[in-house]
Write a structure and sequence with these properties.
Elements lengths: L2 H4 L2 E4 L3 H12 L4 E5 L2 H7 L5 E4 L5 H6 L7 E4 L5 H13 L4 E5 L3 H10 L3 E3 L1 H14 L2 E6 L4 E7 L9 H4 L1 H5 L1 E7 L5 E3 L11 E7 H8 L3
Parallel strand pairs: 1-2, 1-4, 2-3, 4-5, 5-6
Antiparallel strand pairs: 7-8, 8-11, 9-10, 9-11
Helix pairs in contact: 5-6
Length: about 220
């Protein structure tokens, strides 16, 4: 399979999330086949995407005619039509597409998508709300949560670490986290080592279990 063919992505469902994703992929030089059931949406995006098609993605024959079964990467970004989301994802799984991302509108919806074989489930509204809540209520400057209750935070260096090498401040031993990067005011981020001395006002990138990095971010 050619690299060009492997880099193509089919995005099914061109609401706000699907359109934003598709346009971002196009901006990065990725070929995108966009599919939606609304002719007006397809007409609006026909000049923006590599290909844009009106189709019923719950119909296996239609998807095969469009060559969807030959894609290596697919995104199901269908919004509130749960039946269409689930049936479309199921067909992609039957096609043995190796990388399937599916948008869910609830945790229950996400569980179903995972059970039928979606490799990655995204809850955009929930994840953005959770991220902003962490930023609003804590001392975090940024927050990213991964799978299995693991997260990375960007936070101001806690007072107990200031003036000490990281190995002596024992943040790792006390809170079971790893400081992976340090940024001084006016300078670029650098990788952190046990010998890195933390100064007042430094910004740290801290990784670890979500409750642990939250504790570090709340230190004064």
């Amino acid at each position: 399979m050619s690299d060009k063919k492997a880099q193509r992505v089919v995005v099914i469902g061109l609401g706000r999330f699907g359109t934003s994703l598709a346009m971002e992929l196009i901006g990065r030089g990725t070929e995108v086949l966009g599919i939606d059931s609304d002719p007006h949406t397809i007409q609006r995006l026909s000049g923006e995407l590599t290909h844009a098609v009106v189709a019923d993605t719950t119909d296996e024959d239609v998807l095969r005619q469009l060559g969807v079964d030959e894609f290596q990467r697919a995104v199901v970004a269908i919004g509130t039509d749960l039946e269409a989301s689930i049936l479309t994802t199921s067909l992609l799984v039957d096609f043995d597409i190796p990388n399937i991302w599916a948008k869910a509108i609830s945790r229950q919806h996400g569980q179903i998508l995972r059970r039928i074989g979606a490799h990655h489930v995204v809850l955009p509204e929930h994840e953005m709300g959770e991220r902003v809540a962490h930023l609003v209520t804590g001392r975090m400057l940024d927050y990213i949560e991964f799978e299995d209750d693991y997260a990375m935070v960007k936070t101001i260096a806690p007072a107990e670490a200031v003036g000490l090498p990281l190995g002596e401040s024992r943040l790792r031993a006390k809170y079971d986290v790893t400081v992976v990067g340090v940024k001084r005011p006016g300078e670029d981020f650098t990788y952190a080592t046990a010998e890195t001395v933390v100064h007042e006002g430094d910004v740290l990138i801290v990784a670890g279990r979500t409750p642990n990095v939250e504790r570090v971010a709340e230190l004064t």
